[in-house]
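Input:
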Amino acid sequence: MRSFMGRDILSLKDFERNEFFHVLSVAEYMEPIARKRRNVDMLAEKTMVTAFYQPSTRTRLAHEAAMHRLGGHVTGFSDAKMTRAGDWYQESIKDTVKMLEFYGDVIVMRHFQQGAPHEAAKWASIPIINGGDGWGEHPTQILTDLYTVYREKGRLDGLRWLAVGDMRMRTMHSLAYALTQFDCPVTFVSPPNMSLTDEMKAELKQYSLDYQEVEHVEQAIADADVILVEPVVQPDYTKARDERKEGGVGMTPSNYQITRDLLFNKAKSDAILLHSLPRMDEIPPDVDITKWSRYWQEAFNGVVMRMALLGLVLGAME
Ligand code: NCD
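Output:
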């Protein structure tokens, strides 16, 4: 297996099956540290730089929390508008990264342009972690989801997935790539104008992903062991910031909604429901208190997974 030390985490397309299992086992090792809420000194000599060109609650703060749990240091920006990259100068990724690489030992980047973290990785001498790039990918989120499934179900192979939402989403791309490495058939449900691109479909076929597409969640929910939901009512991920217009948000059509009724009447009794959040009305709040919901566990696991990734790329874990 390739070493994780010094490695960029840009895409799950690069990930091999045994690497997924390795990351999961490192996360299991990290979990008790997060659970006890006791910070250790594993990364005491390391600093993480956050470079967030797009809003974030979970991805940035979970990485920061992970760094704190491991005794490391944190610097960076959460609003590029207050840097030269987001003002009149529009400083390039190259010039920005050529600075940031001396401010710390790993850079976590979220950007509205697909491929921006890859561009950063071309110039940086330190690892780059992709915290979401435009419609591109969101590898650390899907690793968090896989870890959640692994902890809740005790396995990954042999589980059937239902993925509901906008298939242009970066999470969906990372999910599709990840599932190619497991015995996990998946059904995608999305509005027609938000379905997988032909290019993506061709790629998934090449990787022998066992997938199908249906129009309504009702057609697929009964067989699903894992239900992963994303919004279909959402901002434009290719913009630095997309303001919601007054009254400009429609309700999520029932085709893409997971309601309490649907779960009670159709879902497997031991299925689990994931959402990386934020949500609109695709999962109504009354679903939170059902046996299916696992998104709060996912939130905790988000810190654990980032601890694993930071420990690995910074060379504190083999
Ligand atoms: C996603 C993002 O911003 O890419 N959320 C997240 O990182 N927790 C958005 C989403 O998955 O809906």
